[in-house]
Write a structure and sequence with these properties.
Rossmann fold, 7 strands, 32% helix, globular
């Protein structure tokens, strides 16, 4: 079987029909982990996106999710990431023909430099778990979405609680020497844990949450495609995901609408001065 045939078998998925219009090489060369284009398509299926809407793609990585949203829905996307600078993301947007709809910037998730109520939609794809487990964060993020606007994330997550100790198959080394479960994986949550956390936030309403059917398989297949193409940045997790078979690892999707609440920005370093106590 040729490499092209192998990649087609792994990447041409009927579950993601829009993503099939994007080249294998492009997705593989610009990946930073799970397939952000698939996750963007899965997330956008549940959103009301209209041309011209202002969208913040928070933690966009190499901006392939931003490019997907701009091309597929005609929205204006601010592609924000801490680790990836705007220069290369701008070149990717230009090459993809969406220079008029993607604005790249470097941004830390607790220092969002936009006006209150600026965005119609905020999405975060394979990133929110790195900063959004803070129970204060959703309230802060909501400040930048207009009342009635949408907040939605798709992230790796747990399919069932793990307690104090991950299962052995996620801790044992794979053939490549790496273990799936690292300390950072403690930011993974179950769908119920995410739903409960968002449900307690008065700045949003209508919280919905679910898991991707066969999410582990899609993640594993993309890891295998990365192996075949030699485009890996991190050690492959395909073996661990295959051993897991979706018992513990998969993808979680959350969405909610912004309410009329106006929460304080508790991450503002000038808050003490504003309150007259500093």
């Amino acid at each position: 079987m040729s490499e092209t045939t192998e990649l087609s078998a792994l990447l041409d998925k009927p579950e993601f029909p829009r993503s099939r219009h994007y080249g294998h090489d492009w997705m593989l060369e610009n990946q930073m982990g799970p397939n952000a284009v698939w996750l963007a398509e899965w997330l956008s299926n549940e959103l009301d996106l209209k041309p011209g809407m202002r969208v913040l793609d928070l933690g966009c990585g190499r901006a392939i999710s931003s490019i997907f949203l701009a091309r597929e829905y005609g929205v204006m996307v601010w592609a924000a990431d801490l680790w990836i600078g705007p220069d290369h993301n701008w070149q990717r947007a230009c090459t993809a023909g969406v220079a008029d709809r993607v604005v790249p910037l470097r941004m830390e998730a607790h220092a969002i430099p936009f006006a209150r109520d600026f965005f119609d939609v905020v999405v975060s794809i394979d990133a929110y778990h790195y900063f959004g487990t803070d129970v204060l964060y959703l309230s802060y993020l909501s400040r930048f979405v207009r009342p009635g606007g949408q907040i939605a994330v798709s992230v790796p997550g747990l399919m069932q609680p793990i307690g104090d100790q991950p299962p052995p198959h996620l801790l044992q080394p794979q053939a490549n020497g790496s273990c799936f479960w690292e300390n950072e994986c403690w930011c993974f949550n179950t769908v119920d844990e995410w739903r409960d956390r968002w449900g307690r936030c008065r700045a949003v309403c209508g919280v919905e949450a679910d898991c991707m059917p066969e999410g582990w398989r899609h993640w594993r297949d993309f890891e295998r495609a990365i192996e075949i193409s030699g485009t890996g940045i991190f050690p492959s997790a395909a073996e661990a995901l295959d051993n897991d078979q979706g018992d513990y690892i998969g993808f979680v999707r959350l969405r909610a609408a912004r309410t009329e609440a106006h929460p304080e920005n508790l991450y503002d370093s000038g808050l003490g001065a504003q309150a007259g106590i500093d």
